[in-house]
Amino acid sequence: MSIATDLRPNRSLQAGAKSGERNPKAMVFLVVLWLAMFIAMTVLLVLVVTTLIEGASRLDLRLFTEYPASSPARAGARPAILGSIWVIVTTAVLTIPLGIAAAVQLEEFADKTNRFNHLIEVNVQNLAAIPSVVYGLLALAVLTLLRVQNKNLVIAGATALGLLILPVIIIATREALRSVPVEIREGSLALGATPLQTMWRQTLPSAVPGIATGSILALSRAMGEAAPLLLLGGLVFVSFDPNGLLSGFTTLPIQIFNWTGRPQEEFRVLAAAASIVLLVLLLAMNGLAIYIRNHFQRRW
Amino acid sequence: MDNLTATQPKAGSRALTDRSVGPHSPSRRPSLITSVRRPGEAVAKIVLRLAAWLTIVITVGIVVALIVPALEFFRQVSISDFLFGTRWAPRFADASFGVVPLVTATIWTTAIALITAVPLGLGAAILLSEYAPPRLRAVLKPILEILAGVPTVVYGLFALAFVQGTVLRDWLNLPTGSFSVLAAGLVMGVMIVPTVASLSEDAMSAVPNSMRQGSAALGANRMQTSLRVVFPAALSGIVAAIVLGVSRAVGETMIVAIAAGGQARIVTGPLEQGQTMTGFIANAALGDSRVGSIEYDTLFAVGLLLFMITLLINFISIRFVRRFREVY
Fold first, then answer.
1. Measured between CA atoms, how close is B85 to chain A, in angstroms?
2. Same domain, A119 and A268
3. Which end of chain A is more exposed for a tag (fewer CB within 10 A), N or C?
């Protein structure tokens, strides 16, 4: 922020003056700002620490190898961990190509003066603000329409989460495409490439780091999401490993929700332990996204 | 960017045909490149266009999916009984479908969340945008972003076990049960701090530096510049950030499902428990609602109300931003 250096001479000129930076009101204001930041950070720290303390005693191998059980001592989150992986991979395969295609169309090819295209743009913004449970209701209604009896399917869960993060991926991809300078496109077109070749061989590859970062962040959001999956009956007792797109499943967030609702204290400990696993997974995904952003993003 | 729009579908495809039929048109020199027709390109363009149209299909799908079962619901329950009824008991023998209790709980949790998130978020945003040197910003911003990445079930567990159980009951000795809208609202507020902070900071960073310099030249200190120059100039963006926070709070499900409680009563104080609209949908999903039963349709009626409220909030935000945007 250049303002910091801009103001320095001013401050030294006015040292001691009523309106200077050392004015008591200004000092209090700065303290209040720091307090706001400090409170937010402290809550994060307390959340992580309390979860760690509560869950540490059950953060053992059983959590990864055992199936949910009615006795907390024998219960584990194996199907939930596998289910989360199944659902997220399926969501990624379904959604990322679609989101990129839609973003390329909107950013590179769509006629921006066209009212219909404008409608699509506003609509994507709106979709991003719709509560996640509503996507669950959508998936529930569609499955009912298809007369599917058992709605707890990997493919159904992945579709619900995919619809939820599609607008996020579209918005991130558009931003990544927008940051690729026009000269790259013009150079390619001038060399005789068609608009589509230009997009496929020049613009899109240049935007890959931005797209990857946005997609990973969107997927990590889907991974922590439980509300839409609840509506598909993801809370049923799953004591088997998911093994296909039409398999029943449960995910880590749903397993955590299930355990928090039990009366026994031991289940709350299990929920905290599973929360640690989920937090570590998400932190790894976020870290990867930030790494890609910092190391592969090109500055033009 | 403007140059790019020249490659809009029509212009683009015309340019393409010109090139590929080049040798055949008498007015043009034969192209040096082997001119091959590219049927694949037409297909690819259609695929791209379909992908963009899909987003409209999803919206229409949501509206239809919500409205059809909701209409079924309103055939049995009048709209005024639903909107103004004060007793919510869809599963009882003498069922009653007044949504007011759910709405009061949503208002309480949302209001508490905003009272928490707006000061914290704006404080953090002013600090990041007006005070923090770049290196400090590079540390603080990612930490705030982690706060946004914590899954809502984990927040819910934190609200239930630590905020409600330990802080409110054990430490402060407040007269409250296992659940309260206060605990859910406070934690929800923390959850939306990054949303408010990051969007407000973007808005404030977009205010040109010349305005800050002008203010400083007139003898204002940084507090005065922040509050009287930058803040008003960025107001439309800040309001949009807060409004997005509101719509996230209204739609948040897991925190309230875990920590706010499961009894649908009119909430009159922050220490009471209450079931929000989203909390009802989550809880109803736990029970087995037969397709075609009134319980099943109730889900969609409440979902439709929730959808309309968030849509309304969103439109207000878009209007507000357009009306009050300062363009520099």
1. 23
2. yes
3. C
Report the C-alpha gap between A67 and A239 in whole angstroms.
6
What confidence category does residue A11 fall into, taking pLDDT thresholds of 50, 70 and 90? very low
Domain membership flag for residue A70 = no
Q: Which domain holds residue A17?
A: 2-58
The pLDDT tens digits of the residues spanning A164-207 come to: 999 999 999 999 999 999 999 999 999 999 999 999 999 999 99
User: Three-class SS of residue B97?
Assistant: strand
In this structure, what are the phi and psi dihedrals at residue B96, rounded to the nearest 5 degrees?
Answer: -140, 135
The residue written with tokens 């009134």 in the block is B294
The confidence score (pLDDT) of residue B16 equals 42
Q: Residue B326's pLDDT is what?
A: 66
The residue of chain B nearest to residue A170, with distances taken between CA atoms, is: B52
A19 CB neighbours in chain B (<8 A) are: 219-221, 224
- A-chain residue closest to B313, CA distance: A129
User: What letter would DSSP give residue B88?
Assistant: E
B143-147: which pairs have CB atoms within 8 A and are 24 or more residues apart? B143/A41, B143/A44, B144/A40, B144/B193, B144/B194, B144/B197, B144/B198, B145/A286, B145/B194, B145/B198, B146/A44, B146/A283, B146/A286, B147/A40, B147/A43, B147/A44, B147/B190, B147/B191, B147/B193, B147/B194
Q: Which residues of B touch A260 (CB under 8 A)?
A: 153, 156-157, 160, 258
Q: Which residue of B has its CA nearest to A140?
A: B65
CATH topology of domain B96-324: MetI-like fold (1.10.3720)
Q: How high is the pLDDT of residue B36?
A: 58
What size, in residues, is chain A? Answer: 300
Query: For chain A, how big is the Rg over CA atoms in Å?
Result: 25
Asked if A101 has any chain B CB less than 8 Å from its own CB, the reply is yes
pLDDT above 50: residue A12: no
Task: Give the end of a domain, one of A15, A30, A58.
Answer: A58
